[in-house]
Amino acid sequence: MDMLVIRGGQPLRGTVRTSGAKNAALPIMAACLLTDGPVRLSEVPKLADVDSLSQLLRLLGVDVEATGPQELSLRVIDRQHFTAPYDLVRKMRASICVLGPLVARRGRAKVSLPGGCNIGHRPIDLHLRGLEALGAQIRVEGGYVEASARRLRGATISLAGPCGSTVTGTANIMAAAVLASGVTTITSAALEPEIVDLAEFLNGLGAQITGQGTPEIRIEGVAALSGGKYSVIPDRIEAATLMIAAIATRGEVTITNIQPTHLESVIHLLREAGADIEIEQSGEETRVVAAGRRMLRPIEFSATPYPGVPTDLQAQLTALLTAAAGDSTVTDAVFPNRFMHVSELCRMGARIEHRGDGVVIRGRNRLSGASVMASDLRASAALAVAALAAEGQSVIRRVYHLDRGYERLDLKLQSLGGQVERILDSPDSIPGSDPTAFLKAA
Ligand code: EPZ
């Protein structure tokens, strides 16, 4: 298992390119089950989650091949299989995205229930209700969802949940409805750019989807889809994490392959806190320059569904605000218990208190390096931000969480001058941790 050793205090400077969006690439890959035609995807990030989904798709009879550094070619070669086993689904919840495409194309799916995870209770009732409305028979037994249908038929389905619309639920139902007979209308659909990307991808294969990016998506069912080519949108969460790291270290970083329109609420929030964010257009290319030139102002925000501040940035923003000139308040309306990073940040000297539904971050605080443990993907990114800004050396363990969703963040940070080293996790390998060092030095 790898860990990151980060020596903080170095302002990040330079230019870095964002990879393709994990949360767009995964449902798009799963949707390849809907067609027999070959699909070529570019800007697919090289991530552990992409590897896990490729493994699952292979089990389901899809030939998945890397045809370039960020390119995958996918083609269904065997339609006999319909089971997504627990061992793969537990590694990555996005595996649930195969459910809709499997029922729609193969008439049958058996997918392990993903269960809870470190960011809280994550039910899939809305996915199941949506598929039932499309005419699927659903049974939950032995930890698996079994769904079957001869042919799905269009319906009107609301995907509103107690904490907003469901993102992968919208992906699942939209993908399933593409091959249903008649028209499906999803109301209270998720507005996330990754849903728009999936709809554009499916339309490129011959689907008839309109309204993506609005709360009402209309899908006119078609008999079959073709193959095609598609390029995945840039990862807005990775881009914003890099912006936050630049600001936290009082550096200046230019980010390319970024769509600032996907980050409006975040850019607004960071500017409100006093960070400098410039959007530059040079010919076809849009670049965002993020800089931290002064002490930040404290702010108050709640993570909400798109177009709000994403829950996937809540942890990184919490880490950033430890250095603000006063107390900030943060809540998470999407995953109200997503605060596992708080106790690790406190190990680095942060003063964060749970209050009501969220946390209060006491500002004016220079963090100090410590040994910390990543508990989930975005929590590990928050720890990396904190470690880069802290005084001294930090060791972040369980970096496999980070590798699930960030394409070699360590290398990208290094290219910006960050003192980040990836080493094999063993107490002997931590620079400066050799207990006999003082003897050798003597
Ligand atoms: C997606 O998860 C993302 N994952 C998550 O990214 C992200 O945090 C989340 O959306 C919210 O933006 C992918 O896109 C692969 P939801 P998803 O269903 O779809 C409740 C990351 O770090 N809910 O939109 O699983 C749920 O409990 C991650 O990259 C129901 O009540 O999230 C939550 O409170 C982690 N019933 C809210 O809705 C359901 O059937 C939103 O969840 C489904 C969800």
Automatic annotation (TrEMBL):
One of its GO terms (biological process) is cell division. Phosphoenolpyruvate binds at residues 22-23. Residues 7-409 form the Enolpyruvate transferase domain. Its main location: cytoplasm. The keyword Cell division applies. It comes from Caulifigura coniformis. This is UDP-N-acetylglucosamine 1-carboxyvinyltransferase. Belongs to the EPSP synthase family. MurA subfamily. GO terms for cellular component: cytoplasm.
